[in-house]
Every structure is written in structure tokens, then in C-alpha cells.
Amino acid sequence: MAGFTADDTDEVMGEINMVPFIDVMLVLLIVFIITVPVMKHAVNVELPKASNEKELIKPETVNLSVQADGSYFLGEEKVSDEALPGLLTAEAAKEPQPDLHIRGDKDVRYERVAQAMAAAQQAGLKKIGFITEPKH
């Protein structure tokens, strides 16, 4: 090994090898040089107080049903094709804007559902969803 010479005598070596200790100290010095500026580089600001409670206001949902014969129902009331855009525009003007759930009968023509969806988009409704029954 480097740092001592082997003699024929069985004397105890009185020297301590300082090289590993110096290596460890240099590594620690480099770590502190890198981390201290990062810790001191923060800007002191007074943060606002906020609550993490969930928002209790849930948006209203509007149900638009399309029956097998193609007639529209907004909620429980039957709506004509001419009155539908006006009612959807009134719903879109509400704050917060309600979600529109379209329930189309499985036997209705796709054209009628597409017309309802187009009327909702033209009225300005942003959230439109389709309601289906899960398969059993």
C-alpha cells in the first residue's frame, strides 16, 4: 500500500492516512457550495391564505330527450323544433352555464340527435354530453 513501508519489525504504525478524509471533505464542500445559493435564492413573499375546501356550487344539468318519433323534450316539457334554439340560448346565458345531457332513443334517426347538438352549439352551450344505458 502507498504511504508506508513494510519493515521486518512488528511495530504498530503511528501514522493516519489522511487522503480519504480529505476526499470526503472536498465532496462535502462541493455539495454545500452548490446547495447554499439555491436555498438563499428565494424571494420572501407573504403568501395569501386559502382554503382547500371543494366548491359547493355544482352546475345545473339540462336534460334534452329525443324520442323515437323525433320529438324533443327539454326536461319534462315537449318542445317544438322552432322553440328549441331559443330555449337553449336562454340556458346558455345562465351563470354558471349548465351542462346539457342529450338522451336519444335507440330507434331515433341520428339526424334528429345531430340537429339537437347543432342547436345547442349554436346557442353557446359549452358542455354537451350523451346519456346511455350500460350494457348488462
Q: Could you estimate the helical fraction of the residues in percent? A: 25-40%
Name the poorly predicted regions: none
The portion of residues forming beta strands comes to 15-25%
Could you give the count of β-strands? 5
Principal-axis shape equals elongated
Backbone CA Rg = 38 Å
Question: Structural class, from secondary structure content?
Answer: alpha/beta
Mean pLDDT: 84
- Across the major sheet, the strand order is 3-2-1-4-5
Q: What's the SSE pattern?
A: HEEEHEHE
Biggest beta sheet summary: 5 strands, mixed
Word description of this protein:
The chain has helices at residues 19-40, 84-92, 110-123; strands spanning 61-66, 72-74, 77-79, 99-104, 128-130. It has 136 residues and is of the alpha/beta class. A 5-stranded mixed β-sheet has the order 3-2-1-4-5, covered by helices on one side. α2 (84-92) packs across α3 (110-123). It is elongated.
List keywords for this structure.
5 strands, 136 residues, alpha/beta, 15% strand, 5-stranded mixed β-sheet
Annotate the secondary structure layout:
Elements: H1 19-40, E1 61-66, E2 72-74, E3 77-79, H2 84-92, E4 99-104, H3 110-123, E5 128-130
Parallel strand pairs: 1-4, 4-5
Antiparallel strand pairs: 1-2, 2-3
What's the quick description here?
This protein has helices spanning 19-40, 84-92, 110-123; strands spanning 61-66, 72-74, 77-79, 99-104, 128-130. The chain is an alpha/beta fold and 136 residues long. α2 packs across α3 (110-123).
